[in-house]
Amino acid sequence: MIDTKQKEKIAFNLLLLATILVVTPVVLILGMVLFYGLPSLTWEFIFGMPRDGMRAGGIFPAIVGTIYLALGTAVFAIPFGILAAIYLNEYAGRNWLTRAIELAIINLAGVPSIVYGLFGLSLFVFFLHLGASILAGSLTLAIMTLPVIITATREALSAVPRSFREVSFSLGASRWQTVRHVVLPNAIPGILTGTILGLSRAAGETAPILFTVAAFYLPSLPRSVYDQAMVLPYHIYVLSTQVPNVSPRVQYGTVLVLVLMVFIMSVIAAYIRSIFRKRKTW
Fold first, then answer.
1. Structure confidence at residue 281 as a pLDDT band (50, 70, 90)
2. How far apart are CA 199 and CA 81, in angstroms?
3. pLDDT for residue 17
4. Residue 97: other Cβ atoms inside 10 A
5. Which end of the chain, N or C, is more open, meaning fewer C-beta atoms within 10 Å of its C-beta?
6. Does 30 reside within a domain?
7. Domain range spanning residue 195?
8. Distance between terminal CA atoms of the chain?
């Protein structure tokens, strides 16, 4: 008969094994990217323009294009996602329509990214005549990111104790005043987490931008939101599949730059999240 201590030890070992199995591939991938990519991180590689069909020069246009696309996605996705989550969680009644919307949001979060790319191609590129541009790509990625932001924001809002709202109402505050001054400040850490997860996914996607914004080779920077742009995920795909005789260090260096950009976004979000967590009253 196994006693309680033995059961606890077995459970601990199983959890430790599961953690090792999850962490090991991530460490190996990051180690490989760092080993092959670090030698490529020179000033010319980061801030130079591509030359010789992307076999030489730098990846600066792809970096700028990725930043533009991430900013455009954030501008469209964050306000609408947070506002939609506030309405669904704080204002909408519990009826069949609300449940249908919630089910649609959950299902949209699992739609393959290539479907969003085709949707963006049909709606933004052809129907709205935006063409393959930063604006069309940002709108496509924003629609893809919305379900993640809405779901994460609703979870963060729901985590705020109901008593906070009741006390605010008892003091004469309106529903919006309660949401604005009581609920949102306490939900911001969770909202930031979901937002960064959504934007990080958008920054690393290739399929949606394949049809809506990505360009194969542009030795110059985009001048407006209606221009095409080189983007790091598509640039990595092109280097790996369509450009012969490219050094693996260039490929891994580009991957490392993209990973560092996502990591910087996460660090900034974690710092802001820690500030708001210190202000929590519960």
1. low
2. 12
3. 92
4. 10
5. N
6. no
7. 39-44+58-278
8. 43
Can you give the length of the chain in residues? 282
- pTM, 2 dp: 0.87
Question: For position 243, which CATH number holds?
Answer: 1.10.3720.10
Q: Chain centroid to CA 277: how far? A: 22
| Averaged confidence pLDDT in the chain | 86
Burial (Cβ within 10 Å: 0-12, 13-18, ≥19) of residue 62: buried
Pull the structure tokens for residue 47. 């801030």
Residue 83 included in any domain: yes
Tokens, residue 152: 């994460």
Rounded Cα gap, residues 69 and 233, in angstroms = 12
- Residue 167: partners with Cβ closer than 8 Å, 6 or more residues away: none
- So what's the pLDDT on residue 8? 84
Q: Cα dist. 36→135, 176, 202, 225 in Å?
A: 34, 52, 25, 34
pLDDT tens, position by position, 181-231: 888 888 888 888 888 888 888 888 888 898 899 888 887 888 889 999 999
Residues contacting 136, CB < 8 A, separation 6+: 120, 124, 125, 128, 130, 212, 213
